[in-house]
């Protein structure tokens, strides 16, 4: 097979893109690319069935897996026994240092929702992880403040991009390679032994899975990769994000497929809600109220999180809670109110049996730790809390029509503003963006755009009077764009206008919005010229 590297080789990129590492990526592609494509076809066929009114259910063909009480996942791996606080963020140089120093047990180094997939971000992120494990990373900001690693560091867990994405910077036989395989393969090749030497291992978060067969593909990749790199089987561990409605019906099967390599499940929020709209948004029973009203305590979200804890603990797997996205404010009163909400959310999770939870900012680590310390004490987790009393049906998981709340003009405007500002920043190369005291990522933009599409599609009435119309949405978008571009130079104004076109095309289009990280929108971020070619 022939591979090509597209785009410039920046300083030290050759340390990541070595011939041996590239040969490993090409081998992974040769072994697994066809299965990936077939599974993506299965996703489309499943969505087509939902469009006819079919609804998901627990799979009859895997009832034996669910009914068998004997199987368990592997015991927690070194560095993953205690996960009471996990911090997330992109693997840029400053975030790498701050996250590792944050006091959290785990850092989710995110190549997915929190990283705009520019060539520099993708390869530079790998280099930063290598440097961090070698303890040769530092950073000095424009004000002269220097950042360096402390003594006690969080365990690194890498989140590669999802199966639906490709990496255009590496082309195999004329086609772009799977972004999942690039992020996974480069990190495993360069950092597995570095991690083992540090007393941990190569650990991953698996995003956007829609069924257990996709988990089986990952497991087969793990087995193959460990054999290729002469690593003991079971060295790799992976936590799966349950952030699609279809995966919620296959949690046990996902743990079963990955059991030798499983480190548990995580309960997302925005991507999970986005998945519901993406699959069932054309049906009136699935119209949701303002995004802020769709909390983790509404019936369908409560059913999903309760089932996740029960499923994990029944199988000896960690259950990790959702994101606290607050960015601490300098206003003490604002901060006190916001931290009270974060504390209440984490108390709910710890009380429900979760073993840990996510935060987006180092300033939230003490609050999350305090809550879980109060429940766990000296115990590393609460895997012994089985939650056998929980019973969740398919109807419970799909009870979207029981969600309280209304659609308001402020809710529509907030979605438009967040989508516009985030996509503008994303086109500029930033994947994690602080907006109105919240750390937003791609999942936020997806749910914001999808909700506007859904409300328009159904002509949803507004609590303030009138309804959601195309004219109203266009007017709001124009107002937000004018405010965003005020005082900007030509290049930044053009970028904002491109972001506005993305919001308008997807929110006002006939079809449900596709991921904005695919297709024409991602083309803006990809390498544009070929600078290095090599035969594999």
From TrEMBL:
Keywords: Acyltransferase, Glyoxylate bypass, Transferase, Tricarboxylic acid cycle
Any Gene Ontology CC annotation: cytoplasm
Transmembrane residue ranges: none
Molecular function per GO: malate synthase activity
Keyword Phosphoprotein attributed: no
A Pfam family hit: MS_N
Domain Malate synthase C-terminal as annotated: residue spans: 407-522
Catalytic activities: glyoxylate + acetyl-CoA + H2O = (S)-malate + CoA + H(+)
Domain Malate synthase TIM barrel positions: 155-399
E.C. number: 2.3.3.9
Active site (catalytic residues): 159, 441
Domain Malate synthase N-terminal positions: 3-62
Pathway: Carbohydrate metabolism; glyoxylate cycle; (S)-malate from isocitrate: step 2/2
Family membership noted in the UniProt record: Belongs to the malate synthase family.
PANTHER family on file: MALATE SYNTHASE, MALATE SYNTHASE 1-RELATED
Protein name: Malate synthase
Native source organism of the sequence: Micromonospora zingiberis
